Amino acid sequence: MTWTVMPTYDEYETAHEEFSWDLPDEYNPAVDFLRKHEDTSRTALRYDHPDGGLETYSFDDLDERSDRLAAALADLGVTAGDRVGVVVPQKPQNPLTHLANWKLGAVSVPLTVLFGRDALQYRLADSEATAVVVDPSVRETIDEIREECPALEHVIELGDADSVTGEAHAFDELVAAYEPGIDVYDATPETPTAIMYTSGSTGPPKGVRHSHALWLGRAAAAYNYFDQGLAEGEATLWTPADWAWGAALGGTLFAAWHHGCTIVGWPRDGFDPQEVYDLLERHDVTKAFMPPTALRMLMGVDDPEARFDLSLETFASAGEPLTSEVVEWVDATFDDVAINEFYGQTELNLVVGNSETWFDTRPGSMGKPFPGYEVAVLDPETHERKERGETGELAIKPGDRRVFFDEYHGLPEKTANKQIDDISARGESEEQRSSGRWFLTDDLVKRDEDGYLWFVSRADDVILTSGYRVGPMEVEDAILTHDAVEQVGVVGVPDETRGEAIKAFVKPARDEYDPDALREEIRTLVRDRLAEYEYPQHIAFVETLPTTTTGKIQRRSLRERDDAD
User: Fold this and answer.
1) Which tens digits make up the pLDDT trace of 544-557?
2) Residue 525 sits in which domain range?
3) What pTM, to 2 d.p., does this model score?
4) Alpha helices of 322-411 — where are they, by DSSP H?
5) Taking Cα atoms as reference points, which of 367, 283, 273 lies closest to residue 318?
6) Which residues form the AMP-binding enzyme C-terminal domain (predicted)?
7) Beta bridge partners of 37
8) Cβ atoms of 134 and 120 closer than 8 Å
9) Which of 4, 120, 269, 409 is deepest in the core (most CB within 10 A)?
10) Cα separations (Å) of 524 from 23, 519, 529?
11) 60 and 37 part of one domain
């Protein structure tokens, strides 16, 4: 019982030619993550408590506790197919709930504690969750929305009988009241596993229903973007990203456990770079998934390799394209530490990326398609293939349909619109032509002559100005090279002459600055780095920028803000 879907390959071309998905007939992720390893007494989770102290959990510990919780949930009436919300930060109770759900055949709904009232209400009601496990920090909000979630029967709050009051069950009491030894649900790769909600960066959040094959797909991707360095018992992983986010949950936490490695849990309200380096040193973290924003904040600490005894081998990053300055900083600051950007979607797994084992990282590039996937760059309207170097919509075809999403919950038309059965093959030879089901990403990219993919923008974020198509990410990348800029979001705004003008919302990196001088410096910088037509005609300085819970700039909100000005 190995269920290791990604073997080691020395050459990228060999991996693409030889790899094929070989999913098992029977598969339950709770068994995969906890029971298949040679030594299940090894540490699976190191929980660095916010109030101090360290808790360690072996694979056996997690197996026993999730058994107990599964028995408790079953006694509350949770059965196969029921949805159970999980609103818990990086605490042991988060994965324990997922594992318990799958032991029952129930479906997890990962949610972040960063969500406010409306966001939680919408997702719990839309998913028809019958139970929800919550952190104390969101209990009051859950009580407010409970009547607006008709299917919600049980609220389980972290804590014991002394701390949990009102109409909620105490998590600790439930676990203590039941014995391990539950019969694990007979599952397959097709068994429903989770409903994950899109970030809402381009419209109302959609519930993305996945099956258990999702976790094998993400574990395979992690093996690649962590440079095939996830040998059993030899790697320790950490991410600052919330475990409700798919790349953190499946591509870091559960990928670690699939490969028999250790994960560090460290819930924090903010991100202090000094404390992060302390954590990386304290736990000998070797593999870190770090969103670009976090990496930029780490750049503010001088000479970290000299100041901290680090065991780092690989940074993996996703969520937005890495700027060249971050890649260059990692190369100049750390000895033998790789930085691998990767790309995925809530719906489509983690499908494109870099791996320094296989090829050199090109700063700003998404990388190349991982083994097990084909990619094509298509005309967004006709779905004809674009030539190398031309901008088009990224389409992806998996070698096994099951590693992608099953459906948008309750949205069959949107599910159908996400995929097409065929693409035309203009510009490709007969042997390169491929038919079958392709999935559309709504992301505009270019593919260069060496096969690297380059992100341009979301399809609906493209700015049409004076006849030119401008991707906001490229302008943002240029502006971020200015040392007086901490963060920026770029959108198109109506303009009588140009059709659209480019507007940048800039968060300055320091409190004191000359706004007129900085505006001119930014415009000159963009003109010099990109093109005359790509400079921002309008620049607004702001204290904060609207982001999704995964840290992405919400350009839709910026456009709405501009309309209100």
Assistant:
1) 998 876 677 888 78
2) 462-564
3) 0.85
4) 324-333
5) 367
6) 474-552
7) none
8) no
9) 120
10) 54, 9, 9
11) yes
